[in-house]
Amino acid sequence: MAINVNTVYKTVLLILNKEERGYVTPDEFNKISAQVQLEIFGNYHNDLNQQLRVPQSDTDYADRVASVDEHLSIFKTEGPATYVPTAGTIPAHFSLPTTDIYGNTVELFTLGTVSYKEQVELQRLQRMEFYNIQKSPLTKSTETYPTYLLENDRLYVKPDTVTSQINVNFLRKPLDPRWGYYIGSVGQFIYDTTAYGADLINTGTGTLTSSITTALTLGVAGTYNSIVTTGGTGTGLIVNATVFSDTEVRIDVATAGTGYISGDVVSIAAGLLGGTSTQVDITLTDANFNANSTYGSTQIELDVSEQTDVILKTLFYFGVVVKDPQIIQVAASQVQREEMNEKS
Q1: Spatial distance between the Cα atoms of 322 and 310, rounded to a whole number of angstroms
Q2: CB 288 within 8 Å of CB 201
Q3: Residues 6+ apart with CB under 8 A from 81
Q4: Which residues lie below 8 Å from residue 78, measured CB to CB, with a gap of 6+?
Q5: Residue-wise over 272-306: b if at least 16 C-beta within 10 A, else e?
Q6: Mean pLDDT for the chain overall
Q7: Is a pLDDT exceeding 50 seen at residue 333?
Q8: What proportions of the chain, in percent to the nearest 5, are helix, strand and coil?
Q9: Full-model pTM
């Protein structure tokens, strides 16, 4: 289970504000929490290597190797490598996956097993060995015993007859945490529970008001909720509308659809805003998407058991931001104590 980004942010603010030590903006929090998550994630490799060198308990929930592997399992995935023919001075190779088998865009963090036809595991070699073994018929790579060289984010595979069906198991980089928000009635930041996505429409109040391109006529004052829109390249956009007069309406997003792009025109059909109201057309702009706004949130992907460590490390970095050596000292001391307990 992921760590709720709102819980971490609210906890950090509570600790910082208790003695009026300063305020941390959502943008600062998002940047620092991304650093903290990556730092903890990067240490999993060292933790696993360390635990493999010491005897482990076979009691349920006490096996630390299994525990670290469980934390890593969230990020384990696989995807196809793409064959790239020889181009100029660059030999034929396979490019590393940018999407996993589920179609999600991912960033590869650590390479794992490379397989051919999902049956044969390729042996990874260093440059000198990779080329030298090809010189003898007895040692050269075959489709039964293929090899590869990893350089410059490219997989060079031998034999040359292998031009497809290379699959890569890897650890993906965690998604950057994002505490999304919209502005409340008195200017406060209100947490946006909508899952962030670059093609999701903003949620919050009045986000599409300025995008109405066709004036409303013959509308009836009132509130109209859960209106299904039509048009555009995406699906699932549902809006609420507040009609102030027969010519003035405010549109708010109720459910963020997916697959929309800037320039799409979505419509509220005639008659849905009371009486004989005319069709309202809404042109989506860059500002209407989560990718270009503060809307939409991404949870901290680490296992929930890491929540205490995440908060402590976040406080440590915030101590630097607000220039409070006491916060830095207390947080660093607690982090060190937690790490010693985990590894002792």
Answers
A1: 18
A2: yes
A3: 94, 95, 96, 97, 114, 155, 166, 167, 168
A4: 97, 100, 101, 167, 168, 169, 170
A5: bbbeebbebbbbbeeebbbeebbbbbbbbbbbeeb
A6: 83
A7: yes
A8: 30, 30, 40
A9: 0.75
Strands 2-3 and 248-255: unpaired
- State mean pLDDT over 79-94: 91
Q: Which amino acid is at 22?
A: G
Banded pLDDT at 71 (limits 50, 70, 90): confident
Q: What residue type is 193 in one-letter code?
A: T
Q: Which amino acid is at 225?
A: N
Judge whether residue 209 has pLDDT over 70.
no
Residue-level pLDDT at 213: 43
Helix (H) or strand (E) run with residue 73 in it = helix 64-73
To the nearest whole percent, how much of the chain has pLDDT over 90?
A: 27
Characterise 194 by phi-psi region: left (phi > 0), alpha (psi -120 to 50), beta (else).
beta
